UniProtKB/TrEMBL annotation:
SUPFAM superfamilies: Nucleotide-diphospho-sugar transferases. This is Glycosyltransferase family 2 protein. GO terms for molecular function: glycosyltransferase activity. Belongs to the glycosyltransferase 2 family. Its EC number is 2.4.-.-. It comes from Marivirga arenosa. The keyword Transmembrane helix does not apply. Keywords: Glycosyltransferase, Transferase. Pfam families: Glycos_transf_2. Residues 7-166 form the Glycosyltransferase 2-like domain.
Length: 335
């Protein structure tokens, strides 16, 4: 018989994070199963786990398959009603699992759900990767309740609700196992970054719901695998955002925004060049080239993908940079 919940931590060279956070996860996740899937780490993560936590199920992935491929591989060896995809740099809280599971048990149309994500280093504030649930604007730029671009809101109880959102963060992602497999798992072509948005978008296009649960809280360090300044991270973010749009929009929708998005990416290229971040700027050019090659593998969505109510119908760039709307509530985004 399958377990109710399996918490799966995907690790890549995160020995220090495992030492720091794994005891906390084990303490707060009982009686549920905790599993570590190692993505072919080159540090001593595996030795550390085998010597210090021999009781934990360890899945050894033969090569680094990235976030998406790593979890797809791991879940071949996991039996549970709910999977919890948990980053190795996350500190959990007491009873962090139950509120989310109760919500998903009550509403079987919820395919994925996230808890409140607060910053580990500044615990009164939301954290960049997910905050209080993810949204997207009509040009495909993701943002969150509690975090728009680099501005993080202080958690003052303004997002303690349970709410339908557009996407849930991969830093701590509860997924109904049945839906995970029926929806085609995570797209391994993404490798890392935005694969959870792609999964959530595919789910919504199939009539499923994505939720945020404000009654559960975890604390995320962030940037534990790829530094925010990394040219590779820049490359993945730009390339995968184009793949995200190409896959989930109709051809008509994609053509409508393609020119505007290209211009905005060109502006980002110039900005990075001006400040001397030449490697990051080159990453944008490479992202565009590789997107054009990779897009041939995909067929575009037959239905329109921007029809969901969680899509912000205006530009988040204009709202933030020109109008000065730094918080979600100021957007007057009515759902």
């Amino acid at each position: 018989m399958a377990n109710k919940v399996a918490v799966v931590i995907l690790n890549y060279n995160g020995r220090n994070y495992l030492e720091q956070f794994l005891p906390n996860v084990l303490e707060n996740s009982s009686p549920y199963q905790v599993i570590v899937a190692d993505n072919a780490s080159t540090d001593d993560s595996v030795h550390f786990l085998e010597s210090q936590f021999p009781e934990i199920q360890l899945i050894k992935i033969p090569e680094n398959l990235g976030y998406a491929g790593g979890y797809n591989y791991a879940f071949k060896y996991v039996e549970a009603e709910y999977y919890v995809l948990l980053n190795s740099d996350v500190e959990t809280t007491k009873s962090w699992i139950e509120p989310v599971v109760e919500l998903m048990d009550e509403n079987t149309e919820i395919a994925a759900c996230q808890p409140k994500i607060r910053s580990f280093h500044n615990k009164k504030y939301f954290e960049y990767a997910g905050a209080a649930g993810g949204y997207i604007d009509f040009l495909g730029y993701p943002f969150c309740r509690g975090r728009i671009f680099s501005t993080l809101e202080k958690d003052q109880g303004q997002y303690d609700d349970n709410r339908s959102v557009f996407w849930a963060t991969g830093a701590c992602l509860f997924v109904r196992a049945k839906d995970f497999h029926e929806l085609g798992e995570l797209d391994a072509e993404f490798f890392a970054h935005m694969e959870e948005i792609d999964f959530c978008w595919r789910a919504k296009n199939r009539g499923k719901q994505i939720y945020y649960c404000g009654k559960s809280t975890v604390y995320h360090v962030g940037g534990g695998t790829l530094n925010t300044e990394s040219p590779f991270k820049t490359y993945l973010n730009f390339r995968n955002n184009w793949l995200l749009l190409y896959k989930n929009l109709s051809q008509k929708e994609f053509v409508k925004i393609k020119f505007k998005r290209t211009i905005l990416d060109y502006i980002a290229f110039i900005q990075l060049t001006v400040v001397g971040k030449y490697s990051n700027a080159k990453s944008i050019s490479k992202a565009h080239r590789d997107f054009r090659k990779m897009s041939k593998k995909y067929s575009q969505n037959e239905k329109e993908g921007f029809t969901h109510p969680e899509v912000f119908s205006r530009s988040i760039i204009i709202a933030y940079f020109l109008k000065g709307f730094k918080s979600f509530t100021k957007l007057k985004f009515t759902l």
